[in-house]
Amino acid sequence: MRVEPNARTEPGAPVDRLDRDEVFLEFTKSICPVCKRVIDAEVNIREGKVFLRKRCSDHGGFEALVYGDAQMYMDSLRFNKPGTLPLETQTEVVDGCPLDCGLCPEHKQHACVGLIEVNSNCNLDCPICFADSGHLPDGFSLTAEQVEAGIDAFVRAEGEPEVLMLSGGEPSIHPQILDFIAMAREKGVRHVVLNTNGIRLAKDRAFASALASHRTAIYLQFDGLREETHRLIRGRDLRDVKIGALEHCEEFGLSVTLVAAVEKGVNEDELADILRFGFAHPAVHSVVFQPVTHAGRHLEFDPRERLTNSDVIHSIVDQMPATFELADFFPVPCCFPTCRSVTYLLVDGETVIPIPRLLDIEEHLDYVTNRVLPDPSIRGALEKLWSASAIPGSATTAESLACATCAIDLPAAVRDLTKKAFMVVIQDFQDSYTLNVRQLMKCCVEQITPDGRLIPFCAYNSVGYREEVRAQLTGVDVQAVVPNSIELRPVLAIGPNGSMVAAAQSEPTASRDARNVGHAR
Ligand code: SF4
Ligand code: SF4
Ligand code: SF4
Predict the structure, then answer these.
(1) Tens digit of pLDDT for each residue in 171-203?
(2) Which of 291, 284, 287 is nearest to 312 (CA)?
(3) Res 120 pLDDT > 80
(4) Pick from 383, 390, 317: nearest CA to 354
(5) Which of 163, 227, 420, 487 is 20–30 Å from 25 (CA)?
(6) Which of 106, 79, 72 minimizes the C-alpha distance to 92?
(7) Where are the domains of the chain?
(8) Residue 93 region by backbone torsions, left for phi larger than 0, else alpha for psi between -120 and 50, else beta
(9) Whose CA is nearest to atom 6 of ligand 1?
(10) Residue 15 has what pLDDT?
(11) What is the pLDDT at residue 100?
(12) Peptide bond before 102: cis, by omega within 30 degrees of 0?
């Protein structure tokens, strides 16, 4: 956006002064979406929305929408809890954020959630896959030793890690997946979560039973109820698969979170249907809405028209006005507050009560204005609930809810908090357009690599770490992925697995040596 200089028509005439059409909010760092070089960036408010803008000297200017409601963005900043140091960091500070992941000693928060991608192969080939997974000629499948090394690094960093997610690819097709879950439990991980598309869960009843015996929580990909949604996002109609998977989860008492990738113009109008489906299903205790991440393979998109957390919250309220209002959703304070928002509900049949109507959440989780001194036990309970590590349906979450609501006379119908509590999460992962190191430095969701690094998830997907680790694991050179955005059309080519890469990129990207230790400068 170019601002024309003030114009003076003739000597002595009044000068027409021009105002910028935006409010400058902050200066930060980001990366070029094409070459991944670290570049300056600024955050501005324009027309009530928040945009991140940056310029690469080789590839030009880029702008992306980062928050659709500027007022909500500004309000969220009070919910920024001081970070907690990890017990151990894995790398040194060498080149600065985000090239020293991680975690490096500059990182502001420990890992609430660790994530291990146990393979890159998948029984689907989703058109939107940010991990660039599928039926690959050059995939990887981690060995037990590699997974153990990752879990050990997590334990060294966290002591007693709260949540380990096993992901992929599709982790359920890894032949040793049950051994990995058992291993994590033996090493002291409190909650193990399986991120799955549900195909094996639907087909393999014994697998569901085995997961239940390991008390595994299920993150089930669930993008909507319409056939067209499935075809556009996943490439095939998976509705029967989801129903089958949920039946097995219910049969064996597995607690399920429905995880919906929300794409503008595809399924953003299905949020209420997904929520109502979740409220009614006995196995489901939460829904996570994730605006799709524009990394890896992805449908073409316009970064200035993308969905953000506040857009999803507005849509939920618009679609269910009798149930929700905007004030029911609060940012999660453990990460940067614009990363994730959450609310809890008490659900019993037609009765749905948002917990923020019963309890003044703001009074306890506002870390900046400190209008009242919060009750430490209630604040502690709410911090556990408004955390990336909260596992719906678990005893820990029920205990926190009981503590937070101890002074409230709950309606009899919703007193069983383990069964009746329902969590709704909105989580917008950053891509290489929206990446802001301010958010990244307080990230609490880390990708654990086989060489023992804990890399903030959005850095892993955007900065070049995913490509670097994949190249190490497969022995095949992996070109840096470039977002499939409309304005980058002229520089894009299709990579070997369907992702977009830079068509004529001769310079190496931000690829780093294996451990970022002793890096040649
Ligand atoms: S994101 Fe965190 S770990 Fe990575 S370089 Fe920045 S401060 Fe260090
Ligand atoms: S999005 Fe998930 S299910 Fe789809 S191809 Fe990627 S890893 Fe597989
Ligand atoms: S993974 Fe991304 S969106 Fe989530 S907390 Fe980390 S930086 Fe924020």
Answers:
(1) 999 999 999 999 999 999 999 999 999 999 999
(2) 291
(3) yes
(4) 317
(5) 487
(6) 106
(7) 70-374+419-510
(8) beta
(9) 97
(10) 83
(11) 97
(12) yes
* Cis ω for the linkage preceding 5 (within 30 of 0): no
| Ligand 3 shell residues, CB under 6 Å | 335-336, 339, 429-430, 439-440, 443-445, 456-458
Instruction: Give me 360's structure tokens.
Output: 């003044």
Distance of CA 402 to CAs 343, 346, 395, 418, 470, Å?
Answer: 16, 12, 10, 9, 44
Half-sphere exposure of 179 (CA within 13 A, CB side): 12
Point out the least confidently predicted range of 130-134, 195-199, 445-449: 130-134
Concatenating the DSSP letter of every residue in 413-450 gives GG--HHHHEEEEEEE----TTT--HHHHTT--EEEEPT
Nearest-atom index, ligand 1, CA of 459 = 1
CA distances to 51, 80, 337, 369, 380 from 75, in Å: 16, 11, 10, 11, 21
| Of residues 283, 151, 261, 120, the one with CA closest to residue 208 | 283
Confidence of residue 511 (pLDDT cuts 50, 70, 90): very low
Give the side-chain half-sphere CA count within 13 A for 403: 17
Give dist(CA 211, CA 219) in Å, integer. Answer: 12
Q: What is the mean pLDDT of residues 435-448?
A: 96
Q: How many CB atoms lie within 10 A of CB 323?
A: 18
Measured distance CA(291)–CA(311) in Å, rounded? 9
Q: What is the pTM of this model?
A: 0.91
CA 104 / ligand 1 centre spacing (Å): 6
Mean pLDDT of 434-462: 96
Nearest-atom number in ligand 1 for the CA of 105 is 8
Residue 101 pLDDT grade (very low, low, confident, very high; cuts 50, 70, 90): very high
Q: Is the pLDDT of residue 414 over 90?
A: no
Tokens matching residue 424: 């709704």
Q: What residues does ligand 2 touch, defined as CB less than 6 Å away?
A: 122, 124-126, 129, 131, 133-134, 168-170, 197
